[in-house]
UniProtKB/TrEMBL annotation:
<keyword id="KW-0489">Methyltransferase</keyword>
<comment type="similarity">
    <text>Belongs to the class IV-like SAM-binding methyltransferase superfamily. RNA methyltransferase TrmH family.</text>
</comment>
<protein>
    <submittedName>
        <fullName>RNA methyltransferase, TrmH family</fullName>
    </submittedName>
</protein>
<dbReference type="InterPro" id="IPR001537">
    <property type="entry name" value="SpoU_MeTrfase"/>
</dbReference>
<dbReference type="GO" id="GO:0008173">
    <property type="term" value="F:RNA methyltransferase activity"/>
</dbReference>
<dbReference type="InterPro" id="IPR013123">
    <property type="entry name" value="SpoU_subst-bd"/>
</dbReference>
<feature type="domain" description="RNA 2-O ribose methyltransferase substrate binding">
    <location>
        <begin position="31"/>
        <end position="100"/>
    </location>
</feature>
<dbReference type="InterPro" id="IPR029064">
    <property type="entry name" value="Ribosomal_eL30-like_sf"/>
</dbReference>
<dbReference type="Pfam" id="PF00588">
    <property type="entry name" value="SpoU_methylase"/>
</dbReference>
<dbReference type="GO" id="GO:0005737">
    <property type="term" value="C:cytoplasm"/>
</dbReference>
<keyword id="KW-0808">Transferase</keyword>
<dbReference type="InterPro" id="IPR053888">
    <property type="entry name" value="MRM3-like_sub_bind"/>
</dbReference>
<dbReference type="GO" id="GO:0006396">
    <property type="term" value="P:RNA processing"/>
</dbReference>
<dbReference type="GO" id="GO:0032259">
    <property type="term" value="P:methylation"/>
</dbReference>
<dbReference type="InterPro" id="IPR029026">
    <property type="entry name" value="tRNA_m1G_MTases_N"/>
</dbReference>
<dbReference type="InterPro" id="IPR051259">
    <property type="entry name" value="rRNA_Methyltransferase"/>
</dbReference>
<dbReference type="InterPro" id="IPR029028">
    <property type="entry name" value="Alpha/beta_knot_MTases"/>
</dbReference>
Amino acid sequence: MEKILSKKNERVKQWKKLLTKKGRTAAGAYLIEGSHMVEEAIKHQAPVREYILSETIAQEDKNKYPHDKLYIVSKEIAQTISETGTNQGFFAVVEIKEPTKPETPEKPYLLLDQVQDPGNVGTMIRTADAAGFAGVILGSGTVDLYNSKVLRSTQGSHFHFPVFQNDLGEWFDWFKDEHVPVYGTELNKDAASYREIPAASRFALVMGNEGNGMNRKWLERTDKNLYIPIEGNAESLNVAVAAGILMFALYQQN
């Protein structure tokens, strides 16, 4: 166990770098914040490198964590590495571990095309986990999985639920080779109401950017593009809400 009180400490500088994608990539690690997230990391045996506690709560909680990985910091340092207005004083540095792609898709997948709102992305990951999907693929242009707002919105699902960050093209090829239908989402004359699509145990669902929808090159490669009929006067649905409706409606377990 080590106590750090200076914001100029080299380890503090390294923690701050984890607040950027470049820093996370260089370190191969990311920072989580909040007692719930730290508890979820422990619960799911995430590869935690370091635990960080604010001195304001350390006396009560320090014995919950392995002392060889524990750092006690001043409340000023805690605020420096926090991305919330009022931090709880709980942090951890977690090693980035890429999930393994299975040989064949046994369950549905959710693909995200240039979805940029962190709250939407985290919510869709959490919902896909709840719906029983096999995983989520964050395509090019989609916000980084390890963005702090994404992580908070997942509520810890990413610790045990596969989330990939790849170009969508290789996944489209994989689904085609495995004879798995790919459904896009777009409102046009050729799109079908999701109610017309039989529920199935294997498929891929693509959700597009909040403002511009799916990229045209992906729309042209889908087996069918779907829409959700809107009965009221709302112009559209939030992308995370729409994804939740479609995931639960289209998936039928064997």
